[in-house]
Amino acid sequence: MKKIKLIINNDFKKNERERFFIKRELQCILNLYAKMVSNGSWKDYSLSTGTREVSFDVYQRSSDKPVLRITKNLKPNYFNEKYLIKDKDGKVIKKSESLNLLIDRTSWNRLKIIK
Q1: Fewer CB atoms near the end CB (10 Å): N or C, the chain?
Q2: Are 99 and 88 contacting, i.e. CB atoms less than 8 angstroms apart?
Q3: pLDDT in tens, 45-57
Q4: Are strands 53-59 and 68-73 parallel, antiparallel or unpaired?
Q5: In sequence order, which residues have a C-beta less than 8 Å from that of residue 30 and are 6 or more positions away?
Q6: Residue 64 neighbours by CB under 8 Å, 6+ apart
Q7: Where residue 16 falls among pLDDT bands split at 50, 70, 90?
Q8: 71 exposed, middle or buried (CB, 10 Å; 0-12, 13-18, 19+)?
Q9: What are residue 16's phi and psi, to 5 degrees?
Q10: Is residue 15 part of a domain?
Q11: DSSP for 98-113?
């Protein structure tokens, strides 16, 4: 007879869901991406995952480094470091506890893309 284990309060599925952008977050980012592509500012994107963060990387040309990174910090030290915007060197430009607030309060036309 096989041994059967009873698992109560299994948080594995909850942690598995939190390893990527949820649907509302990804929809918000893709709406911004569509707007910036129509302006001609952004050309390509990629998604990267890690143990500490998930990022949406924006490229001006597909062969370069990412120009901007919109990241979701999975293990933030402070409550306002959940969502970050980083430049190509990894320097934090803006941070917020809400992705919608971060995208709405950032003036995307004023961000200068340095080649």
Answers
A1: N
A2: no
A3: 999 998 899 999 9
A4: antiparallel
A5: none
A6: none
A7: low
A8: buried
A9: -65, -40
A10: no
A11: -HHHHHHHS-TTTS--
